[in-house]
Amino acid sequence: MITPQITNDLRESFEAVLRRRPPFQGRGQRLALFNLLPVPRATAKLSLAVLVLLTATITLSAQVMSGGKYEVTSSVQASGGGASAGGGKMIEGTAGQTSAGGPLANSTLVQNPGFWFTTAGSVSAAPSPTPSPSPTPTPAAIPTISISDVTQTEGNSGTSSFTFLVTLSSASTQPISVNYLTADGTATNNSDYQAGSGSLMFGPGETSKPLVVLVNGDTQVEPNEAFAVTLFSPVNATIAKGQAAATIINDDSGPITTFQLSAANYSVQEDLTALTLTVNRSGDVTGAASVDYVTLDGSAVQKSDFEYAAGTLKFAPGEISKTFQVLINEDIYTEGSESFQVVLSNPIGASLGEPSAATVNITDDAVESSTNPLDLAQSFVHTQYHDFLNREPDAAGLAFWTNQITSCGNNTQCIDAKRVNVSAAFFLSIEFQETGYLRYLLEKESFGSTAKYAEFTRDLQAISRGVIVHQAGWEQKLKDNQQQFADEWVNRPAFKAAYEHMSNSDYVNALYTNAGILTTQAERQSLVEALDTGESRAKVLLDVAANNAFRQREQSSAFVLMQYFGYLRRDPSSAPDSDLSGYNFWLNKLNAFDGDYLKAEMVKAFIISTEYRQRFGQ
């Protein structure tokens, strides 16, 4: 209620400034307030003369903003105490109203557009309607991306286009992109199809894009093969179905190529020795093919009875058989005959025949020795060949290292020291440094991570196969093995996913970053330029692994890790350990002595440990 006080002046004026009042108080807004300000009469928008004992002029001025209802109620009292004629007056209006209206639209009261007057008490003011709340805009749904599967024949020559359809769930007003990458399955890059990677771009309004992968035709009779295409890193969209399965249908006829083991059962006498197994290929052998093999524990276990074996046998055109070895260990336990399995898997360019699995029976010694094989000089050395070089010893090497220990005679202190040095020599040997340590370094520079036992052991066998240092042709054999392994390494899905999209410069920088070493810009640039002029990424990977600073930096970490892989045949965090505390203890201790394993007593501790000795006896 606005109640102006009338003085003796015959005419006065005031302004009522209206502020917005919300249509209802439920939204937590404040009620409208009104301020009275003296204004010149000339600015009045509405003048209402009221007869009282003294004449007073009430001047009302209002600015109505958009949205909401407004009202002002006023009673005017004359200075003599009389009430204004007509009593209280109310001004009502709706924001944005452009013409007069209201309950007394045709009354004698003065009206201005946007307002009306009503006499309070005699006519009810029109209730302010509650406006419908403005709807909250619903954000446009983010499209999802899917890729179709493809099943198609390969053809007999040239290439066939396998077209995958990449679709959006709905059109978008924004540009959308997604990356893609192919990955080998039973079908392999170059042999069966042409690997690809890149990005697909959807313009505003587009909802589908074709993605073409070329498949190589051939006349080889083989099983159906498969590869995959994976979508990743979408922009302005999410992925609903991110992997497509591509099935290459064999459309050739003739004899099917198969792999099979030469026997379903093998027997071997318990001893420090090796069992040779043969895999045969039959049918159409005119093409290249490969098959994987792996040992599986049975009553005989890889930690003590035999050495874990795994790998891939690659058959060149025309080759019909390949062999691999499983190393057998000696122990003093009376346990009867034990057995384990050898299984073939993942045939490429062929299918599995029968038998694709074999049982290997280890015949226990008729009379077991009471002496742990590790306490016999030659058996101890023989075991180092199995555990670190993953091969049978050559005669000259076995004799040399055995003599290092036996030269001590009965001097126990000398024997203990020689055993430590002989065992450490296998890790430090050229043969291990260029095979096992190389494998460790490749993992580090590629992913910044540490190798795992099973994967490491499998790869060690591939790099070291046929390599015996100081035998004729060993250097070339080692170089060939390293390059072949690096070529295969850079084509593994994890490596391709990490690096295939990178420029040559970024690739080189990433390798050095993972390796944790600083190099000169000139050294990095030389590798980039080599890549730009045709050098393979596999070769550059090997070049970084050969960096002396990198090798020195990782030497102690690898040395400790190989104590677990070699002596204990497990990962550092595997049972009986549950974390890396043991590994970290020995690494810290070795570092404290600047890598001196003798002062750190690391090798000594492992070769006399209960866990190591119980692999073969007490």
Task: Characterize the structure shown.
With 618 residues, the protein is α+β, with helices and mostly antiparallel strands. The protein has four domains: 105 residues, no CATH class; 106 residues, Immunoglobulin-like (Sandwich); 113 residues, Sandwich (Immunoglobulin-like), CATH 2.60.40; 237 residues, no CATH class. The chain is built from 16 helices and 25 strands. The chain has a five-stranded mixed β-sheet with strand order 9-16-14-11-12, with helices on one face. The chain starts with 14 loop residues before the first strand and ends in a 5-residue tail after the last helix.
The gist of it:
By secondary structure, the chain is α+β, with helices and mostly antiparallel strands. The protein is built from 16 helices and 25 strands.
Note the main sheet: 5 strands, mixed
The dominant shape is globular
Low-confidence stretches: 1-92, 94-126
The termini sit apart by 104 Å
Q: How much of the residues is beta strand, in percent? A: 25-35%
* Alpha carbon gyration radius: 44 Å
Question: Share of helix among residues?
Answer: 25-40%
Counted beta strands: 25
Structural class: alpha+beta
- What is the helix tally? 16
Strand order of the largest sheet: 9-16-14-11-12
The chain-level mean pLDDT equals 83
Q: Indicate how many domains the architecture comprises.
A: 4
Question: In oligomeric terms, what are we looking at?
Answer: single chain
